[in-house]
Design brief:
Number of strands: 12
Distance between the termini: 55 Å
Helix content: 25-40%
Strand content: 5-15%
Structural class: alpha+beta
Order of helices and strands: HEEEHHHEHHEEEHHHEEHEEEH
Radius of gyration: 23 Å
Shape: globular
Number of helices: 11
Low-confidence stretches: 1-13
Strand order of the largest sheet: 1-2-3-10
Length: 385
């Protein structure tokens, strides 16, 4: 046995703040530790149970603890857990890519599979640049990308006809239309691909989050025949790659997730439960003096907070309304995860929270989410000085 502790050392140890070797999102406060997850609930180390109303950041689209997916992961691991896409392919990647392309009814031609939404966006930008170098009459002067301002995690559905108009603009000027569906796609808005509701087809589409439900890191891009044909007639290769590109285990997990969504008819449930969630949120929060907007589609909803409901003037960003509501929600008696957002007005000002329940959620849980969300918002503003 080692030497006994010095007098008072035990008390000193109790007063020492907990430490972690992980560089967390904040270096000033450690996050609570999740030790178990099942269905729509997260269990923390302290025994507290949290209603997961956001699936992380719209990731856990099937809730937690899907035995079919875990079995698929084990099966793929037993076949081959890793092989370099530089030399080989694998069943997981081939099955997933084929499913994704078939899900577009042939409107997209190829899938490029990576490990995160950020990697997918990087891949989309590089592919677009290469396209203009590969076409029959190269256009190397095309180097600029145009994007919507302040769109990150904003949950702002486009007005009807917006995407058709943007597609027309792109075609008129010879530009590629790249749609970022990392967060809004793969069923989150009620169809597997959100663009199916807009009457258009993108040239490049990014996907992620709900693609693999968080069982393994996976994302990707879907590519229009126009772009793949240019590569086929040119160099015949996409000059880009990652070590974990088309990672077998992640692909097998994502393929099983997509099969579950299809087998259980969950896209219809997304539409039905999304309609209920919208109705309840509007019923409980439309008249709140600091709720500036309730917006969304399917099971992807944002609630915007404003200082003045009539002028839509935002709160000072130093108040931290979105984060404050999120933190309050995690406390007793509410025990609900609400995803905060900030800076959506001008990069600094603008507060909102996101709701993104699992696709297989039932009406009782939707009612609970709406009730707890309204209670947290009311409690926060009651205490705001």
């Amino acid at each position: 046995m080692g030497p006994s502790a010095a007098p008072g050392q035990e008390l000193l140890d109790d007063l020492t703040p907990p430490t972690s070797a992980v560089l967390h999102r904040s270096s000033h406060q450690l996050p609570e530790k999740v030790i178990r997850a099942e269905g729509n609930w997260l269990t923390l180390e302290n025994g507290q149970q949290i209603l997961d109303a956001t699936g992380g950041a719209a990731v856990a689209c099937l809730g937690h603890g899907q035995a079919r997916v875990m079995k698929a992961i084990q099966s793929q691991s037993e076949q081959v857990s890793f092989c370099s896409s530089f030399f080989f392919t694998n069943n997981g990647a081939e099955n997933l890519a084929r499913y994704l392309i078939e899900s577009t009814q042939g409107k997209m031609a190829k899938a490029f599979l990576v490990s995160s939404g950020s990697e997918a966006m990087e891949s989309a930008l590089k592919l677009a640049r290469q396209y203009y170098l590969e076409i029959q009459e190269p256009q190397p002067e095309r180097t600029r990308f145009i994007a919507r301002r302040q769109s990150f995690h904003g949950c702002v559905p486009a007005p009807k006809g917006y995407f058709k108009a943007m597609k027309d603009v792109c075609e008129r000027h010879g530009a590629l239309l790249i749609l970022d569906e990392v967060m809004s796609g793969m069923g989150r808005c009620g169809t597997l691909h959100e663009w199916e509701q807009e009457g258009i087809v993108p040239d490049i589409q990014t996907i992620g989050k709900g693609l693999g439900r968080g069982y393994a890191p996976i994302a990707g891009i879907l590519i229009n025949p126009k772009v793949t044909n240019a590569l086929d007639k040119g160099s015949g290769a996409f000059t880009h790659g990652h070590t974990y590109q088309a990672y077998p285990v992640a692909c097998a997990a994502a393929y099983e997730v997509q099969r579950i969504i299809q087998d259980q008819g969950l896209l219809a449930n997304v539409k039905a439960m999304g309609a209920v969630l919208e109705e309840l949120l509007r019923e409980k929060l439309d008249s709140h003096p600091h709720v500036g907007d309730i917006r969304g589609k399917g099971l992807f909803w944002g609630i915007e907070f404003v200082r003045d409901k009539h002028t839509k003037k935002p709160f000072d960003p130093q108040v931290g309304v979105g984060m404050g509501i999120s933190k309050l929600g995690l406390m007793e008696p509410w025990n609900i995860s609400l995803y905060p957002g900030a800076g959506t007005v001008d990069g600094r000002s603008g507060d909102h929270i996101l709701l993104a329940p699992a696709y297989n959620v039932d009406i009782r849980t939707i009612e609970m989410i709406a009730e707890k969300t309204a209670q947290v918002i009311q409690a926060y503003f009651n205490n705001l000085k």
